[in-house]
Amino acid sequence: MLLSNKTGIIIQARTGSSRLPGKMTLPFFEDQDLITLMINKFKLKAGEIPFVIATTLSPGDDIINEICSKSGVPCYRGSENDVLDRFIRTAEQFRFETIIRVCADNPFFDVASSLLLADLLVSTKADYAGYAMDGNLPSIKTHIGLWGEAVTLKALIKADSLTADSLYREHVTNYVYNHPEYFKIGLAPAPSGLSQRTDLRFTLDTRDDYELHRKIYRQLAEDGNTDNLTALVNMIDQNNDYKKVMKNQITLNTK
């Protein structure tokens, strides 16, 4: 891998979801809530790449800080609504020049493929790297919820200087990939032939997502396949009820 020792993973998490409040600390699988599940996944899969949880200063997120402390994982607390600023401050504190951004509400997150995006960023000297869905749409803008994205701290600082728009402050990388005139964008086809699978939803935002994803995760765990992307997609393709729930949630939650 081409990763430098200035590469780090920042996992974005908070309890203040409007569609499913407290989702990060709801029981998800056995004795693990969603944030603990993600922490354990990254402990197992991230290798020597450091990772940190970036949460907010809201009292409601004290519990995330406590979980991080018990798990021995660093936690940075910053602005609740200005997530761009939160990421910049986190990266500066931990001296990350290349950032792999992760949203914690993705229980089926593919760590290995997401780490490769930092290689793409470095090898192409891009400011932003992601996987492309449905043409040239960064996967972060879809419902698939399987991969993160890579971005340089320099690019985030530049975006910070160019916009005060609340949309771009809340969605960390949105300004970067929407302004290719200012930034070099590197997109690669989504792994496992999933570039056209806009019918899949593995991000967890609603109660229906939560109930469905718990069921899927339990089934995968019975076969030891919780990190097997092929098994995950095959399970959905073979279950019309699962596909129906996903289709409905995609329709209801598309902005």
Explain how this protein is built.
The chain is of the alpha/beta class. The protein has one domain: Spore Coat Polysaccharide Biosynthesis Protein SpsA, Chain A. It contains ten helices and ten strands. Strands 1, 4, 5, 6, 7, 8, 9 and 10 form an eight-stranded mixed beta sheet that branches. It has a two-stranded antiparallel ribbon with strand order 2-3. β7 (128-133) and β8 form a beta hairpin. It starts with 6 loop residues before the first strand and ends with a helix.
Concise description?
Helix content is 42%, strand content 17%. It has 255 residues and is an alpha/beta fold.
Please state the CA-atom Rg, rounded to the nearest Å: 17 Å
CATH architecture: Alpha-Beta Complex
Number of helices: 10
* Derived structural class: alpha/beta
CATH domain class name: Alpha Beta
Which superfamily, in CATH terms, is the homologous superfamily? Answer: Spore Coat Polysaccharide Biosynthesis Protein SpsA, Chain A
Q: On the 0-100 scale, what is the average pLDDT?
A: 95
Distance from first to last alpha carbon: 36 Å
* pLDDT < 50 runs, ≥5 residues: none
Structural topology:
Layout: E1 7-12, E2 27-29, E3 32-33, H1 34-45, E4 51-56, H2 62-71, E5 75-78, H3 83-94, E6 98-103, H4 111-124, E7 128-133, E8 137-138, E9 149-152, H5 153-162, H6 166-170, H7 174-177, E10 185-189, H8 207-222, H9 229-237, H10 240-253
